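Table S2 (continued). Query chain:
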Amino acid sequence: MSTSTTMKPVIQMPTKAPLLSGRGWSAWLAALIVLCALVPLLNLVIPADSVFHMSDFAVGLIAKIMCYAICALAMDLIWGYTGILSLGHGLFFALGGYAMGMYLMRQIGLDGNYKSELPDFMVFLDWKTLPWHWFFSGSFWSTLILVVVAPGLVALVFGYFAFRSRIKGVYFSIITQALTFAAMLLFFRNETGFGGNNGFTDFKRILDIPIATPGMRMTLFVLTSLTLLSFFLFGRWLVGSKYGRVLQAIRDAETRVMFSGYSPLGYKLSIWVLSAMMCGVAGALYVPQVGIINPSEMSPANSIEIAIWAAVGGRATLIGPILGAFIVNGAKSWLTVTYPEFWLYFLGALFIGVTLYLPDGVVGLVKRLRGNKA
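Corresponding output:
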């Protein structure tokens, strides 16, 4: 008597050659590790009056761009490897930032002269009690949980209904942008308890340690660089696993994946939530270093910029979006000081040029140049 077994077909990777070889990955990884270690080391051993000593402004700028790079990396997982263009990741970034900002604002109240449980802006508005969504903001460790749970939960609820309804393509992108814009309008309202138009600012301490000190700035820099490196290595492992191969198959031919016996819903929803959590962590690292968080971080333009970073660097490469974040924001930092009236024109021209002439981004260009020289 013969028995038959049903085997689930194996998802095959696309035949397109990867943009980065093993040697290329090693080179980019080494550059990222140098960035994480070189700045703290140089500032430790080099005198402050040396030209090689980085100022507090430069350290803060690089740390801020690394937070953006984490968002670009998260965008690459959902767009580059899964084929889902989100124009709402700025919301998840801001939710993580607000979670950390709530904790920092509580520290201002406890550290002030009036020793109130309420943040100073609530005292000014004559609030009597904390809103229910502030109850977990008094503890640093519960705040760390909230940093990933808040954006993850919003992404889970939104993604479940969107992916279950099989919304995709430009329709999904528009809905994510609408969600971000609606959240921005909600946070602008004073009665929601998020500081209204001004948001949160004037932070003093974190874990009872003053924030505005060179030592704390460098500590936050190191934490940000280690987080970026960890997410990069995690993403490298993820896309090389069976899970990652299924994501890329969904990107290239979702219908064939369904016919092969796989359900795209679980894969798309899980990578969507993971991507949102990564942005939440980036926002939490961003707020104490920049010193402010307000609803403008949820503006649709900020979410579009995250997609531009990924496109400029090179989608489906992991290192490309990180590079794109540094290129675009480095140019933004320079142009907004020297030629502020031309910055938006430059950004638009850059995105159009990359879309038309560099579909694989800067990483693809580097590969082609190396191939021509070989």
